[in-house]
Structures are given as structure tokens and as C-alpha cells.
Amino acid sequence: MTHAGPLVATLVVGLALAFALGFAARLLRLPPLLGYIAAGVAVGPHTPGFVADPTLTAALAEIGVALLLFAVGLHFRARDLMAVWRIAVPGALAQIALATLLGAGTGMLAFGLGGPPALVFGLALAISSTAVATRALDERGRLGGEAGRIALGWLVMQDLVVVLALVLLPALADAHQADNLAATLGATLLQLVGFIAAMAIGGRVLLPWLLARVAATGSRELFTLAVIVAALGTAFGASALFGVSPALGAFFAGVLLGESPLGHQAAADTVPLQRVFVALFFVSIGAVVEPEAMLALPGASFATLLSVLLGTGGAILGLLLLMRVPLPAAATVAGAMAQIGEFSFLLAQLAIGAGLLPVETRGPLLVAATLTIVATPLTQFLTDRLALWIEGTRRVQVWLARRGRARLSSPPPQGLEDHAILVGHGRVGRVVAQALQRHGRPYVVIEADHAAASALRAAGTPVVWGDAARPEVLHAARPETARMIVLAMPEAAGCRRVLDIARAANPAIIAAARAHDEEEAAFLEREQGMGLVVMGEREIALGMADYAMTRLGVTVEASQRTVEDLRAGR
User: Fold this and answer.
1) Is the model's pTM score more than 0.85?
2) CATH for 5-394?
């Protein structure tokens, strides 16, 4: 057996089981990550059969998290982060404080912990899993919207707090080193400032310049390799030189590179590798699950789980509402972030090694992490249902109205008739608006992003700010006199709710909607009165088929009939 044996065995067996169990989960209409976690349990040291090398699994998982955050950064813009900074900074800090105090109380009651150990235990329960949260938002098409920007800003702040905590753990282990604690905190802050300055000055210019030089050679292999080196090299450098989390370093590298013209190609080249290593990350989570330890303290495990759900999910929802974030976006963020993960594991493991936490805390922590990660799709569904229920409560509607939730950003003309209602003014809605404007057709935009709505209002566009799934917001666009509604929204369930409200006001209204995949398209096409459902890849294929038919001698009329038949599934 060569030295590569454990690495090859871990990769092959781990990925094979992840594929098999992930595929099984998908057949059962469950998220594949549940299969990945089950694969980790199967190769872990606490179940019979093959046992993966825990050191290798943890290292591969760290690479996966770094690549995931690098890919997220490529699609994220610094201006988007700054746009939610006023929400993310105070909100995340307040949530971490509340969750830490709640978790500290749980640690004192369940394990008899003292002051500093209880605070460390509470902090481990206050940090959401970046990998799980971003993956959950991405799978529902929310990562690029207002909820995604808020969540990413919130996660960045949580990561910064974890960086401070990890550096301070050795000093906290000795409660008498107050002077050392202050000096360590100062040194850590200087490291963070140095990292941000290095990325802002060197990374903004150096990374795009180097990749542009590589791209000029015309070698795709070299360009892909350069992108991977940039991602992992920045992650390693951030950790080795500045003591910053590798995942956070990779995220900032992606943000800077995403602003360059090479960002789209860099994102495309890293996606396959990123997906493989992210699967290994979830396998690594399952590998540390110890069934006996998880069942040893059921009362403490339940209290820890409840602390995570209330201190993270509940606190995020409440704080976002207090900061006047629209209820649907707040519910989406809370549902995606109501769990703990990689950084909680790392923080707890280091605290146990330093003697701050007893070994007994590991089991309940694993229970809380595993169950909250597995239940993330359920928490997303429940928070969405909760948002709908809250909005349907009359007293809450009055409270929201008093807080300005239902105000129009720019009231549509009173005499508006036979107009189109465009729900969303992103990449899809913007093109539809330009087409209608070119031919002088009236339309009203409903936009949930306040900054985007303000920009439209300044440009003279009739716009309603708010969530179109709320009756008072949609009614402000006058659906009773509209001819059609264009649902340029990122997810099918939201389209259905908006369509129900619009059709209740105007049964004859024509509807058009977008879909991200065949399942969403089929879901929307079953809706009564849906005029058109557009799915990006399908429409590209139909456009190319139409072009091919007409160029090969098929008449325009016959080509159009064929396209319509294919679109309808005939």
C-alpha cells in the first residue's frame, strides 16, 4: 500500500456512497445533502465497515467550503454587500449576542459550565453553517436576490466573529490572563485590517491581471488551474499570514475576481470541482456523528437543539423585522440560516482540546448540528408558511402598514387600464419592461428590493415597493384593470400565490411566468389560465431548433407549429 492509499480510498468510497445515497434521496424528493450526510455516517468510525481517514476527510471538507465560498463570491458584488451592510453588521452582532447568551444559559443548566466556558458553548450555537445556508438559498433561486445578499452579509459578519473567537481561545483557557486577552484581541484586529487592506490593494489589481495574462495564452487548462490556485491560494494565505478563516479568504477572492470581465468564465470553470468537494464536506459532517454520544444526553441534546432554533432562526427573523426588512425576505433568511455547522464544530473541538469545554458537550452539539442541517428544507418551508400566516393576521397587517410596509414607492396613475404588471425587475423583468416601453404599452413594476424600487422611481417608472404575494401590495398595481401579469419571480410557489391573488381580483387576467427547471415549469403549467411558462434552457433549445428548421428548408409556419408542439410537450 502506497502513501496515496488512504487518500484514494477516502475519495472513492466517500464519493461513491455520496452519489448512491444522494441519488436515493433525490428519488425520494429529498435534498441530496441528506444522502451525503448519510454517506458520512456510513464511512465514519462509529459504524461497521470501511472507515475513512478523519484527517483527510476534514482537509477535503475545508477545501470544499473554500471553493463554495469562492464560487459564491464570484456571483456576489461588493456593492451588493455594502447595500446590506447597515442590516448585516448590527443584525448579525445582535443575533450572535442573543444566541450566545441563550446558549450560555443552556450550557450552565445542562452541563454546569462556568462563565467563559458557557460563553464559548453559546457562541458555538450562534454561528450558522455558511455552506448549508448558501446551498439552501441557491437551490431555491434566492441567492442572487435581496434575501441572498442579506444572508451573505450576515454570514460574513458571523465568520469575522468566529475568527476573533478562534484566536482568543488560548487566552480564554486561562481566565487570569486578562492582559494577554487584551493584547491578543488587538493583534487579531490588526490581522483582520491587514488582510482587508491586502485584498483591497493587491487583490483587486493583481488577481484579475494575472488571470487576464493566463487567459491571453488561449489555454483553458491553464486558466482553470489558475482559478483554482487563486481560490485556494488566497484561502491558504489568508489563514497562514493573517489568521483569517480560509473560507472567508476565498470568499473575498471571489468577490474581487467577480468584478472583473473574467468572473463568469472563472465561475463556470470552478463549478464541477466545487460541487465534488462540497459533497465531501457534508460527508465529513456525517463522519463525526457518534450515535451513542448523541443518545447519551437526550435532555441536553433537546435543549441545545432548541437553543439553536430560537437563538439563530428565531433571533434572525425577529431582528430583520425590527430593521424593516420585508417579511418574506426575513423569513427566507431565517429559514436558511437556522442551523449550525462547520465553524461550530471547529470552535467546539478547539475549546475541548484547550480544556474550556468538557467532552460531554460534543454529543449534544452534534445532535443540534445534524438535526438542524437535515431539517433546513423543513425550516425553510415552515418559515415561509409562518410568513404567510402572519401576513394574513389582521392586527399584523395594521402593524406592518403603520411601519410603512405597504406604501407605494411611486403610485401608479389613477387612470391606468389595460396595463401589464411586471412582478420583479431583474434580468428578466427588465427586458420585458424595455420591450413594452419601446411600443408605448403601459406597465407597472412590483419590486421587493427597496434600492431597486427607488432607482426605478427616480427614473419615472411606475413602481410598487413590496412583496407581490401580499394582497395590499399587489392591489396597489390595480390588477382588476390590468390585461396581463408577468411573473418574473425566482420560485414557482411564489408565482402561484401571486397569481391566485391577481386572479381573485381579475379572473380574465393573462399570466406569463418563468421557471428554472422542468419540475417548476410543469408545476406552473398546471395552473388554470397560465398563458406562458418560460424555462430558460428549453427556450434556448426551441430557438435553436426553429433556426435549424428554417435554414434547412422548413416553412416558417410549419416551424412555428413544431415549436409550439414541443413547448406544449406534444
Assistant:
1) no
2) 1.20.1530.20
